[in-house]
């Protein structure tokens, strides 16, 4: 199985994530700009959690903290009990923009992580596995400018998955896709997550997307982001948009966001 | 053209819809060049110049080749089609040769010694080629060593400036003060500071190439999408990997703009240095020819210099196209 190939033997698939009393602010010219205000979330291994909130509220900052790209001003972020202080290939980030390297082919883009860690010689076969996993076999030699938006985002996903991550940080990865591609990729994301068993954190401002994909939806207030509500989506996959339970949850989420006119 | 309607193929030849068997433009060009040959050979020279018959022979050979190509270009596929695109230019060049020949050798409208006739130029190439050839080699050597040193130093300085704040602190003011100064301004100093005029000129050519390459490499590295670094860092990349595999490839399109500008700057410094100090090279040849009022030699050297500079620029663009094949919509040189 392809999904089995993407996991190293012996390691538990999903990472337990702890966010403990995290506050964060950016230093603008003279004054600090607070973006996160005392946020605490616990994520179980293998859980799919969506972080929902208005644009620019600070959700993406939270993902950067979890990726180890930035350090929180206050509080702790923890992965499997250990403080997150630096980036690590076990925690991978997928941006809204695919941010593929335009000078690399699909194959070389996906190989990036293995190459960076000097594993390309011994584990190069995983590149092909990851490309097949996202359904892009046959496009290995293509350059990013030759791909559609959806294909490029699939490559970005393969580039993340090839590193055998245990935590997948998704920063509005479907935000720039057309609505049809978006729907089909939502389904693909769910089946990918189900097969791999890794922990997934999805930042989105699309209520419906959060409810279709996640087991738990955490709703944030506008900046500085603090947790406004937590919705448990206890429905089996694949989910349907017109499920009355989801419709009710959608109404609740919009109410929390102040959009229930 | 009605030729496209003719689809009767010669036996053994696959008919090509896009390449009709006969190339009319080539026939026209061939006819013009043969005409130029006849014009040169049979009309008496107004001004006494040698090599008229050799020029006529050369034009006749070119005309013959064009006629031959017109009859056979369909057989050469891609290359034949490329040649066809050059048809109008071949015709116009033939006409230009006739005009030039008429204004100089045949009528004397443009008088010697300031204007050279085509056969005058041919004479220079046939008789003075050892000296001209040596000048080309000297110029090339000086240019390529200087340019290579300057481009390399500029590339390294640009990457360092873009990457390290500490290096930027020291290099940036120097770059700002010295960079915009034309390299030729250093000429008088360079010629007495350096032990030989050759090494002084190499330094000046290098300096001329260094500035644009540094600035554009620097701006290329600074302008790299921050997310490229974040992606690589989350995937376990080291600092070395970030510089070599992310910053440099991402900056490469800008680097090539710098290399292109640097090449132009080194050409001009090269010529000035050779005219003022170095006793060899095409710049020196130009100066020397002017001193002897050998204007034909000057024109001949200018043509060679144009070919050399254009050839080197073409080489640079070709290597860019190869390295940056992933880019869309770049200028075709």
UniProtKB/TrEMBL annotation, chain B:
SUPFAM superfamilies: MetI-like. InterPro entries: MetI-like, MetI-like_sf. The chain crosses the membrane at residues 21-43, 55-76, 88-105, 140-162, 174-194, 200-221, 242-272, 292-317. It is a multi-pass membrane protein. It is found in: Cell membrane. Residues 136-316 form the ABC transmembrane type-1 domain. Keywords: Cell membrane, Membrane, Transmembrane, Transmembrane helix, Transport. Pfam families: BPD_transp_1. Belongs to the binding-protein-dependent transport system permease family. This is ABC transporter permease subunit.
